Amino acid sequence: MTYGRNDIAKTLYYRAVRECPWSKDLYIMAFRKLRSLFTIDELEEAMNVLYEKEIRLRVSIDKFDDNLRIDN
After folding, report:
1. C-alpha closest to that of 42 among 68, 22, 62
2. Where is this protein chiefly located (predicted)?
């Protein structure tokens, strides 16, 4: 929940990822709970970070990426 403070929520998200880069849950939070705050480009960059860090996912990110483009 952002309580209408989207700018602060986004800043806190980036700070959390910076402080805990090993936390897969934080990266995924951008796609599940905070999805409406991010642009497609920002979400694609987050996906690229997941690839670079070789974080294992249960769902193909390519399939998820197709869903992002349809919804937005």
Report:
1. 68
2. nucleus
Comparing C-alpha atoms, which of 17, 66, 22 is closest to residue 40?
A: 66
**Can you give the pTM of this predicted structure?**
0.68
Number of H helices, E strands in the chain: 4, 0
**What is the amino acid identity at position 37?**
L
Which pair of structure tokens corresponds to residue 70? 């349809």
Q: Say which residue the tokens 């709970």 belong to.
A: 33
Written as one letter, the residue type at 66 is D
Q: Would you give the DSSP letter of residue 30?
A: H
Alpha helices in 1-72 (DSSP H): 6-19, 24-32, 40-52, 61-71
